[in-house]
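Input/output pair, single chain:
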Amino acid sequence: MEAASNLQYHLDSVTDFLGPWWVEVCFIIFFAFGYRFIRLDLFGGKEGVQGKKHAGKALESTKGNVKIEELHNRVKEEVIAGDMIGALKFWRKAQAQVASSPDTLRLVVQALTSTSPDTLVEEVAAHLEAHHAAACNTQSALAVLDTVGHGQTSEVLDEVCGMLRTRLAIPMNYQLYEALLAGHAFAGNDERVDDICQEISDIGQKRTARAYALIIKGFLCRGNLDAGLKHTQAMRKQGFYVPPFAVGLLFRIGSESERLKDVFEVCLESGISLPHETVCFAFEDCLKRSDCALAATIEAAVRAGGDLPHGAFDPLLKVNVVAGHSHALELWEEMQALGVKVTEGLCVGVLARSAESKHLRFAEEVTKYCRDRNLMTIALYSALMKVYVYCGFFGRACDLYPEILEKGLVPDKIMYGCLMRFAVECGRTELSQELSRLAPQLDVQNYMSLIRAAGRDKDVERAFSLLQQLTATGEKVDLAAYNCVLDACVCAGALTRARELAEDMRARFGRLDIVTYNTLLKGFTTACNLKDAYALLREMEQDGVGPNDISYNSIINAAVCKGNFKEAWGAIEEMESKGIKADHYTVSIMLKALKRFGGSRESTRVLAMVDRLGVNVCHEEVLLNTLIEVCMHLGQTKRLQDLLALYDRSGNKPSQHLYGALIKACSQLKRMNKCKEYWQDMVVERAMQPNDIVLGCMLDALVCNGLVGEAVELFKSWKPKVGANMVMYSTLAKGFAVEGRAHEAMEMWRGIQAEGAPMNTVVYNALIDAQARKGATAEVADLFAGMVVDGIKPDAITYSTMVKAHCVKGDMNKALEVLAEMQAVGLVKDCIVFNTILDWCTKSNRMDIADRVLQEFNELQIAPSNFTVGILIKMYGRRRMLDKAFVVAEEMPTKWGFKANPQVFTCLISACFLNNNLDRAFQVFQELRENGADFKSYNVIIGGCLKAGKVQEAAELIEDAYGLNGKERVLPHGQNISPETLESVMHALGQRGLAEKVGFPLIANLRAAKVPVNGRLMTSAFDVDVKFPPRQQGRGRQGGQGKARQQDKAAAA
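Output:
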């Protein structure tokens, strides 16, 4: 008995081991057998294969003595020949004489399924009953079920199974259950598969590994991914190994249904190891869909279980390059370290993809690899040129030409044409002419590039000469070439010549196209000649060439360049009345005009047009950049926040220039973390090297947000790679001035002098300001002398800053002397110097001097600024002249045509509190709130409420700022009320006994809104709300313990 148990155990082990390989092993065996049999039949037998014409004769020759093997061969011949009817005809005649083998039954069932599915069950049952002893067994049943399962519905399969079990009384074993499960899975009937699995479980059996594999295969062949995944998980829970073919099929179906991520997650959770081929396929799919995130997840999982297969590096590298990810550099280095073969095709492919993602740093690493190994070819140079061009570096693309010649390579016709276009774009006319002489043959496009180059140089004669040369070649010259020459005339301002050429074109071609008219229109609008421009529009309509959006955009641009918004809006209305929709170019033109001429009315109208047209600004970088700048210029904080959020959701990859605009916008919103995130994404994630403009934007963001130290470190780290300019130096000098680091500012100046870099007025003014804020008049004198030595003429800001230096030092007489000197040289043209003196007089309470200076300011009729208004409001507030402050706030902006900014309102609120007029303070704040109050405004209004004893009102203002208790947030995201203000409110609530009722719920709501809250807020309330005995208030040990218990209680709360 024990020996039988051991034998059964070993047989089960062998079965479990061979289970996953059953399909493959059977396929190999039957293939080998069938191949040998067919070959013997073809070449070894006397009859041979004669096709269906000899089938009847062969049957007649048997004379009632058909053998099993002969029956199988004849049926097989007909099935292979595609004659299912002939196969059935032969079988039906012979089946009464001899029992069909399982292999013959497979062929017969296949034929019946194709030609006579209605009689399938009855004919098979009748044949097996007729040969009950020889054929009514599990092998025959398996053959029937297996074949039916691959070609019929679940209903037919159940009918056949019922016939086998009830009519023929063939008992079910694990092989029949496997065939039944596979058939229902192939039919896509998950419910029947579950029923059969339950039936197997009810009789005390378990599904085999082969059964699971067949179920998974059946569902996946049917495209039923969910059922396939479900049974894959069940297979793993039973401890079975999922065969590689099933894993590969899962990933293929997952890719086709765009659910590769779901498949991978199931495999990861179930602990299924991925075959190398599947890993490569997964990365290829990620590349096809540009899904770098999923590729990174798959890579991490694969690396956790071992090394990446070499074949996976190619698609994984490309998907990271397309995403512009810095991981591409790491993969590239790893490939070299592992000895993965790097072919020219791979290098060309990744360079081409680097162009799309502007991944310049990676492209240069690949180029360095190829250069070091002398692998550079024309194809690689072409791909590298593409990278430079996509990044906007046309000059660097042209710089490759001498290197190509040095390598002994010969550019082809296409490369010559591309190089000529690049040379034109970067203004290298001599190179374009040289290329035209060396090119083996110039086509029309090459000549057009050369004509454009002549237009850039405003060389009309050369443009006409090139046109003559093109005509002499015998090439067909169309309107496009003539339009290039026409554009050259317009660029050079030769409008008369352009008109003559247009008439010649009309005579030659019999017509003028829309490009010709728009080029002429550009000439008139560039000269701001709107009268002739509109006349040309009428001429176009008479010639049957209707103006398009480009035509009207030219007129709109000319109108706004003159500040004539009325004319521009008239053109927009006309184009829309003709069914021509304003596009993103129209919007960009109007937005750019706002920065120069736009008032509040025009700003409102233009921004309303942006909303009305529904232009997708995220897909047009120029428009997006312009809109960001306008929102910053107009102080449109809410719109700017929404714009940045919209762009983040778009998933677009910014260009280098757009990174600078995004960083500036986030800096203005005081979202320094977002500035750093953009910088990190650019230099680390996408491995892009910033230019001097973007670096300058980041330095300015750091300085404006009080991170001067980080700005200095960033400047030092990138200066060797990017270089330095005076904008960067002036930004750092501004930071030193704000933080009072005058000594470092002087050291920076000495460093610039040592480098011999040319200074300018802006940098000197920033350096002087750093010293002026400290009252360092000696250093100011040194810097002023340096300006004279460097030949830089001081401007009004220079003198104003020097005045500030003397004011800080307290030497008002010297300050007035500098003012007199400014007036003598005619530099008192704006309010800057007066603002400086008035501000210092207000702070030092020298109202006598302030009145004298203000009188002189008014007599000179110098235009004030918002800063002037703010200073005067402060001055009148301190002098208890609140009505006068309101008069200044209302009349001065109206008189001089500017809008009071939030800082003016904040100053007015402070003056109201200083004069104990809370009602007017809240009126001013309400007006400011409607236009967008910032954190400074809230700090001031809350502080005023606390001083006036309005504690609960102060708490309500905090709720209003952050939008607590269901309110809408007013404070811009990224801005926060100062911790000191919050602590003061909590302290005041504690004093009033309102900590538990108002204070603690307020803190809870702030935390729920994810507002930064420090631990001192609780203790600020407890310090005054909890009354301790006098002895605990002392300075001894008990007092300290009481304080500790108090803080512990606060922390617990």
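Residues 22-44 form the longest helix (23 residues). The CA atoms of residues 565 and 1024 lie 62 Å apart.
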